[in-house]
Predict the structure.
Amino acid sequence: MGYGWAVPASKLFSVFVRGSFGFFGHGSVIQRPVRLWGESRIGIGDDVFVGAGSWLQVLDECTEPLALTIGSGTSIAGTCVLSAASSVSLGKQVLLARNVYIADHVHRYDDPERAVLAQGITGIAPVEICDGAWLGQNVVICPGVRVGRGAVIGANSVVREDVPDFSVAVGAPARVVRTFAGAQAALLAAARAGTA
């Protein structure tokens, strides 16, 4: 059996749920199945794609009016987790491969008398994935991280520190292994000219 039914069904589902979001842009599609929590504090730009099996959530502890934002043109392949207790921001035209995990918090685990699940969260720090970045399959982004514009994160990497604009980072923990000097020079020139 083909999957021709999936596109219209996903568009219909997206139309049905769009009103529950903080904002939901034109042409954006969320494929089912999907797990959603705290939609009123999630903002999705225009022409965003969220693949099946993903989990978008804003935790109950959050006091921010809009804690999870996904910029226009961003594509999330599927089975990805985006979890915000304060602020997770994806810029425009960000590309997430399958199984990417992004959270601005971690679970507490310091009380040996209680299950980790019952201990709440800690280490809350904003996460920003800037315009045009690409996160490979199985990437984990930890709290407090900024992934720069046009940066590439290799598959299976765990990112615990900031990654500069136009850089490639790989490994667990991720380390920068390459920068695109031409792109950085163009960015600096644009900034000096006041056009960036």
